[in-house]
């Protein structure tokens, strides 16, 4: 899954670390939670490309 994040053009954000993790819920047809799993964490450091 790809996620696009808009980061403002601000020098204050240079070098900052961001972390993202997604907990998907699997539901049955009557919308009861069957399973909760977790993705691996993604870490990103803001810097010039």
TL;DR of this structure?
This protein is an all-beta fold and 49 residues long. Helices cover 0% and strands 31% of the residues.
Write a structural description.
The strands form two sheets. A two-stranded antiparallel ribbon has the order 1-4. Strands 2-3 form a two-stranded antiparallel sheet. The protein is built from no helices and four strands. It is elongated and about 50 Å long. It has a domain at 15-45. The protein starts with 16 loop residues before the first strand and ends with a strand. The protein is mainly beta and 49 residues long. The mean pLDDT is 82. The protein has strands spanning 17-20, 25-27, 33-36, 42-45.
| Low-confidence runs | none
Instruction: Write the element-wise H/E pattern from the N-terminal end onward.
Output: EEEE
The average pLDDT score comes to 82
Strand content: 25-35%
Number of E-type strands: 4
The shape, in one word, is elongated
Summed up, the helix count is 0
Structural class: mainly beta
**Adjacency order of strands in the biggest sheet:** 1-4
Through-space gap between termini = 22 Å
- Determine the fraction of residues in helical runs and give it as a percent range: under 10%
* Main sheet characteristics: 2 strands, antiparallel
């Amino acid at each position: 899954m790809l996620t696009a994040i808009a980061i403002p053009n601000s020098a204050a954000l240079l070098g900052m670390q961001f972390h993202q993790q997604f907990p998907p819920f699997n539901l049955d047809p009557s919308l009861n939670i069957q399973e909760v799993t977790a993705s691996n964490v993604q870490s990103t450091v803001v810097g010039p490309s």
